[in-house]
């Protein structure tokens, strides 16, 4: 037998062995799956569970519940199946969560509204030109104000095509691009596209499309929000937060942020979803179901920090300004690691009633100075006995010196008096309105973060202990514990890691 024939024979034998092993592996996997299905079938239909609590895997996946068709699994079976699903199809679950929010979240937190605002393109422009939402604004002149993102310099000229109810013909008018101030000289910026309304129009448009010419293809379709018509008078307090990104999944910090602000008197939260993690996504869904949170999809086709600043945060802040206008009396513009804390009152509501007595007709917003509570500083000894690791109770050492107003400060605004919102201050008020600087004795911004310039040099700055948050310690701990307990099985918080639950506790 020649060497070549021996080689071919050996190769054939090797190929057959590999093929045989593959078939054996396939049948082994198939047998395992069939066995698992049989066990699951027996558990569901033949094994009784003494624990009366029911848990549905369909709820955990966020699917609509149908009590006539849904199979409700016993808790121990559901938990095991949830663990298998979490381990095997985490990517698919993330897709489901993102599709859920992209498809069904509107500005009221209601489900099933196909008219939810989202980023849409304007075709026919030289550069990217995207539009998000539209608002009727008659405070100075009648116009439709569109939240957009476009090239910072020499943005394409566009037009507004109005669509009316009751069968009136559409109308096209030239638009004006108004650059929103803060852009860091990046390629793209947030914009207002201003669409003037003439008295000859039959009514306020129902929708508007931004186009490049009268005969251009319609590639966007924005609902015109008319809050002034829909709300009799603004009341209460809301919070606006810039786009949630980097798969944000700080479960305990997120719940702490919501619950502490609720204790302070906040009634509603408006968030923008770029990317979120599974735990926070599930908690958002529960808050939405309770009517205290709205989450808007925020898939902006521009590279953050390279093409546009921080996921287009200035478009989000100004969208939230107009979204809350006439609906809420006061609106906080803050981040998840920030809290505007009253230091002489028991709530934001009480504090704002006090400061509003000074020049009530001239004030358009209140500025609160920033003080850092650096995370590198030691945790408060009193926090060691607490059942949860809450950042506002752990970190009670703060920088002694406050930043001046307009530097790191944050605002509470009266939306109908503001034209353009910035990150740390208001860029433009209506004529006759102005900023009121609130003294730190009354209240200031508690900002919990690491040293802002990297390293640990910040911990050498002059500091003092500030336990003001302990005024609400019992309420806060109880509220967070309640949320974790109520939603643990619905959201399956601790499926990924057995140590995850322990890490939340002391």
Automatic annotation (TrEMBL):
**Does the entry feature the keyword Cell division, yes or no?**
no
Q: Which InterPro entries match?
A: Glyco_transf_92 (IPR008166)
**What EC number(s) does the entry state?**
2.4.1.-
Q: Which stretches are transmembrane?
A: 26-47
Instruction: Give the UniProt keywords, A-Z.
Output: Glycosyltransferase, Membrane, Transferase, Transmembrane, Transmembrane helix
Instruction: Give the membrane topology.
Output: Single-pass membrane protein
Q: Which compartments is it annotated to reside in?
A: Membrane
Short name of one Pfam family: Glyco_transf_92
The record's family statement is: Belongs to the glycosyltransferase 92 family.
Designated name of the protein:
Glycosyltransferase family 92 protein
User: Upper taxonomic classification of the species?
Assistant: Eukaryota, Metazoa, Ecdysozoa, Arthropoda, Chelicerata
Whichever gene encodes this chain, its name is: LOC106472733
